[in-house]
Amino acid sequence: MGPQQNRPISRQLKDTHAFSGTSLFFGVLASAVCAAIIPALGAGRLATVAGAALSPVLVAVITTHGRGLVRSIGIAGLSAFALVITIGGFTVPEAIAGQGSLTGKGSGTFVSTKRLPTPTPPAVWPTKPRVVPSTKPPAKPVPSTPPTSPSGMKVAIPEVRRCPEVEVGGNEVCKQIVIRNVGSTTVKVATGDIEGDQSSDFILTKVCDGTLKPKKSCSIRLRFWPTVAGAREAFLVVHLQPGDVEHRVTITGNAVAKNGDDDGGTEPTGCREGFVPRVAGPGDSVCVTPEERATVRQQNHAHVDGHRANPNGTCVDGFVWREAVPQDHTCVTPPERAATQHQNQLNSERVIT
């Protein structure tokens, strides 16, 4: 043992064959194979690192010679070298590609290398004067004329959308408003408000916000929910960029009076004088003041356009289900929910019995 211990450490390590070409080749190969297979099986990064580190240890135990501390140092050195080569061999290509793991579904084999999309800053739209709707009967739909701008933007949007006829207090889904990019440049779309004196009779249920590449389209959906009989009309504002274009879609619908009341007068609501049905949703006939019903319509619009709900139907933090009726899952603030429940309690005093 004496002569062996007196030999230079570099010579003793060389005799272990830990850094021979064969040991290095099989050590790196084993580490790389484990790093490729483990993510493909759905395991996490911790398991991947463990596999990439331990597999060259097994190779080193087989390919090295000798015993004692020097051999242990050789095994550790070979394993560390193989692990470094493996991590670099995976991370560098993944970082260049920016698509995450080469073999699995994660954002990277050892570290996150998937590039996130650059967030688009919210567009700021200029304020436009409110348009007073005409009292004339709804106009016949005309073919859509694509709005254009000096930038070459060209988008096809309907000029008029006529909703199905419905009885006062009921509601019907209107045909969707499709916005199609028929030009050669990308367009930014933002759904604005429904404007006009009769705007509360039309409720947005789906908006179109974001970018549209050429030949792509998106849709806006709404419901016709009339409060009085007769022809109803409002205007949906759609903002388009580039070019700061504001397009208005005329929305029309005809409301039929209940119980054969065709004189266009006061609708038979079942509520005492000064109160109207709330119609927060299907099946809701609680009697409220006109101001309270207008607030409910605003809440419905904010639920659609204000990102208050999660994809699974629950509300984001700070909001709760309104539950004007049991199936009402509109997201509102806790004070708004409390006001709704108070309206329910007062209904017996406001309804005609």
From TrEMBL:
Q: Which GO terms describe its biological process?
A: carbohydrate metabolic process
Query: Where are the coiled-coil regions?
Result: none
Segments carrying the region annotation (Disordered) are 113-154
Q: Does the keyword Transmembrane helix apply?
A: yes
The UniProt keyword set, sorted, is: Membrane, Transmembrane, Transmembrane helix
Is the keyword Transmembrane helix assigned to this protein?
yes
Membrane spanning segments where?
21-41, 47-66, 73-92
Superkingdom classification of source: Bacteria
Query: In which residue ranges is the amino acid composition biased (Pro residues)?
Result: 135-149
Q: What is the protein name for this chain? A: ASPM-SPD-2-Hydin domain-containing protein
Under the heading InterPro entries, the entry gives:
Ig-like_fold
